[in-house]
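Problem statement: downstream parser choked on a complex file, so we are re-checking the raw output for the adenosine-5'-triphosphate run. The parser issue turned out to be on our end (a line-ending mismatch), but while we're here, posting the original submission so the record is complete.
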Amino acid sequence: MDAYLVLHRGSRWTDVYRLVPPSEVILGRSSENQVVLRSGRASRRHARLACDETSWYIEDLGSRNGVFVNDARIEQPTRLGEGDRLQVAGFEMRFTHDLAHWSGGDPNHSRLASDQATRNYEDEATQDDLMLGEGFANETESEWLDIVSRSPASTLASQNDSTATDQTGPPRPLNEQSSRPGQIGPASASDQSLLQMAFALGRLELPDDDFEPAAELLMQTLAAQIPAAEIGLYIFESDGNLPMPNLPMPRHVHQREGHRYRRPPESLVRQIRAPGASALLARNVVGDRRLATEDTRGEIDVESIVMVPLDLPTITSAEPATNAESRSNDKPLENDTQKHERSGASGLLHVITTAGDPSLSERDLAVIVTACEIFCEACRSLSRRQRLQQTLHHSQETIRRLRKQIAGRVQILGRSEKIAQVQYQIAQVARSGAAVLLRGESGTGKELVASAIHYASPRADEPMVCLNCAALSKDLLESELFGHEKGAFTGATDLKKGKFEAASGGTLMLDEIGEMNLDLQAKLLRVLEGHPFERVGGHTSIRVDVRVIAATHRDLQAMVQKGTFRQDLFYRLNVIEIVVPPLRERGRDIVLLAEHFVGTFVQAMGRGPMKLTTDATKKLLQYPWPGNVRELRNVIERAVVMAPLETQGLHEIGAEELMLTRAVAGDTPSPPPMSRSASQTESPEPTNSESGPPISLAQLERQHIARVLKRTGGNKSQTASILGIERSTLDRKLKRYAAEDTATH
Ligand SMILES: Nc1ncnc2c1ncn2[C@@H]1O[C@H](COP(=O)(O)OP(=O)(O)OP(=O)(O)O)[C@@H](O)[C@H]1O
């Protein structure tokens, strides 16, 4: 049951508006307009709605019934100014000349309000015989103007809530057209054509932000579904911030032979472009300048209109930002519906029929709105896909660039014969894909050699992945190597690719291979022999092309004899063996490497120029370097950190500034790590000499911490790192010292 506001023009009942509170009602601006409230049982003019240049007014036409304005009977003409509200039986009608005030209402709300209003009327009808509503639609052609929700999904929700008898509400979803609520009927021709469109859109591959092919599909589908219509599709470009203000030329137009498509008037476009605007269906609009534009003869012969706002991904006329850095700084991406609610539609579909052709129906409206939703969703997902592809492309570029940088830095420094031999072997094996076994003590540079082989090989553009087999338990190592499926074991919350997959096409370095257990050795051997593998907990066979470089400090041959390393695996890995010599066997390479590390750390820490004294060099050459190049690197790093900050010009790193863990011949026993200049100026010194009063270990620790703190200029992280303790431990100790000081003062 509905109520209508009827506008009378001359002798014909023409404009009929279904009242959809809280929507506002737009009335034709004609001096002949009249408003009549009537019922299906009898129709009677009660009042006339008229207007002059500035105001609307209602005149009582002298019948026995009056019109209620704010529940008061009016007998005399009442003038309604622009924006005034008229309350009739629970309905609020607002009069306005301006389409900008025209806003859509929630269809569900409308129906409830309408039912409420009808009940109000029925209560009052006996007393006042105020005639509203029932049956009017049967008496006359159902000409109406309605605004519907933008989303078919919400239409579906409101339909399911409503009674099945309501035929005048917003359009039903297509599959309910021929069935009762809750039942899915057989797919109609329009369902099939929409599905076909959705599938075709799903298969599209679009270059850049170009929605043309998708738009063409939409136009073809609608033209086939609504043959008697002209259609215009508009896409609003933006200058990066605001959408362009004026209606652009339509991107696509469909018009029948002998018919011309006409653009909608700007005022109506503004309305549909407003944030949160709904789709609209208007019928019987012939002659209405606000809803249609004139043709070349100055006639307005548009009979019915559907307009649908489109939530398309924003298209900017400027270059779209594509690089990953700029994206990573972005706020989380707003979803398109949120964007539409905030800034309005980014496109518009406009469908018209002209006089003499059938008006657009609710069903047409449903088809159009659904097709538009499918089109917009397809464009959004195409746009998302493009953005991901651009980001991926950018990341691949970055990886390539970084790999080149790393490759440039992989330098096996040294001029000794032994290192020259290693460099020669690297050049020899790099081109081949053969397995390589690197042997050498810890810290000699085995990983560096593996990297050098990789970056000199044809696999240089592919990943180089390292895995230390000693650092993990058997099960974890298996899952690291081969990956695991989601749920394979407790804690496997996601699928994880293993290092073999990660290194696909590239090189996998298996460090400390001698620590791998026999079961896993067997699995590894199968893969090295070209068999596929499965992730832990998985059944899919995976095959990869990976070059394996194994490294160990152990004597694998001895392990084979003891039965702790598989012989077949040993032969498989040991196709080419490179022995990386210990640092103590590299002669003056020690000095070369030390000077290289001084330069590296000075630059990295932003320190002034430094060099090693002759004494320091001598000391380095005498030292046996049990920790090899890694130890040398650490010794130099510590010396650079500890060098006095206040030094002007070149600082010379003396022998006493090199903290070596073992005594070197000619050294005074374990000198404290300090520079010559510092030793002259600093006090108190940690006293580990025979002179001076003996102090406790705790005091010595406190003094040492104070001294290192001073050397690092108060930098606690650096201090903790030099002392070899956690930063939190250092904080705790400093707090305790402060508390002790407070207690003693
Ligand atoms: N010839 C070299 N030139 C420059 N730096 C080197 C050289 N050899 C080793 N290094 C450096 O010494 C450190 C230890 O090297 P690396 O990790 O390659 O040794 P490793 O033999 O693999 O050690 P581990 O057996 O403990 O894994 C690294 O920082 C590496 O850059």
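For whoever reads this later: Residues 700-743 form a domain with the Arc Repressor Mutant, subunit A fold (CATH 1.10.10).
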